[in-house]
């Protein structure tokens, strides 16, 4: 191994590419293996470990593709794959035995499992092992080329897994720079972090900030496992089991961790199960470690959820009260969107400024409320569910605003240039009349969301029937905004239907307010505004 390492270090990048790049093509990840060569030349604290985890993941996927040249169902476990007769036929039994010494057996170096389960601290794995696996992969490529020429077979690579419905995975809000900066301080203070593993945590957060989302999650998942094992062994006073990873033990860890964390209104079991284990879920860890995911296209949404969950654990097991995780809810719809439309994209004298619904007062209220930081950390499920619905409503309102502004601007130019056909002119006038009504309604919804967010934690005081009724109302508002996105599109132009739907929604809002089901007693401004709209 040392000789191979010295040999590779003696090569320039250009020399390495010329001599070896061809023999990495069979992996379908040539660029990744070339990047691993760069790691050997200038090893950072965590780069060798990250390179090895990515290398073993992609190598396993490629070996599975080779297996399918002969076999039918590729083994799920790497040790079974490496021990298969099919790979021995292609590469030779002696070669497979050497490979198993490095990555396929608990009786060997077992590099893959040692790293993916978080048992190796930074720089504990010598770079020479990474060099040797790089060298072996190129050798496998040469042997495979010979086999394919002899058998006239064609190697087919299986498609990568594609994550569907990413919006449904959203449990935590989107992370911003402020949150990540706090997380970097929390890592140094939290008892959830094994101090020897600190460089991995810092590297993971750095990778997220650099938009290297696959690297971030690859570095972070093993450390989450280490932290959970540390918590379990500390709680149960069995430090000798910190280096245990058998299935039964991990199930016990999950059970006990769940019991411990539920004391502060978290939901670790559901989150870990949904993201890591559930057969119909994303199964992030399995798919990353088995090479089923295209690392270059790893979605930010998934990385955001994993990092956010990690930060909540850091917060929970930090003794420093000064470092509290603060989630800021930003209302994405500018309160002045429709004022822009009225001012810039309508024929003059079409509307009166008196038509606007207390625009100045509403603007001031929204600015003040939107500057309020809402902390949802450690909050019970009803709070989180409600916030998610609010976020979806604001997103839909944003889409409505953007579509209407773009459509109105276009039609205004066509109106001034006298290029609109008769039906288009009719639709344009209907749209302008509708906007006069739609603008204050969206302002009303914005104020409603903002006021409810300020009092979001009161939702936990509702009994189950009241909460379900409240949630049903919010989802009806969400459905209304989703319908608005469709009805106001240039393709639909359903402005009459929009007005009818809006009237029904206003009546629904008024009934809920009259029944005192909102989270707060509405202030004078809101009552005045709502009454004006309804009238």
Number of helices: 23
Fraction of residues in H or I helices:
55-70%
What percentage of amino acids are in beta strands? under 5%
**Which of globular, elongated, flat, extended, rod-shaped describes the shape?**
globular
Low-confidence stretches: 247-256, 258-266, 320-358, 521-535
Structural class: mainly alpha
Radius of gyration: 29 Å
Averaging pLDDT over every residue, what do you get? 79
Which sheet architecture does the biggest sheet show?
A: none
The number of distinct β-strands equals 0
Main features:
535 residues; mainly alpha; disordered C terminus; DUF4209
Explain what you see.
This is ER membrane associated RNA degradation. InterPro entries: DUF4209 (IPR025209), ERMARD (IPR039635). Pfam families: DUF4209. Residues 59-139 form the DUF4209 domain. This protein has 535 residues and is mainly α. It is 64% helix and 0% strand. It is built from 23 helices and no strands. Helix 10 runs antiparallel to helix 11 (198-209) and helix 19 (381-416) packs antiparallel against helix 20 (422-454). The longest helix is centred in the last third of the chain and has 36 residues, at 381-416. The chain is globular, with a radius of gyration of 29 Å.
Tell me briefly what this model is.
By secondary structure, this protein is mainly alpha-helical.
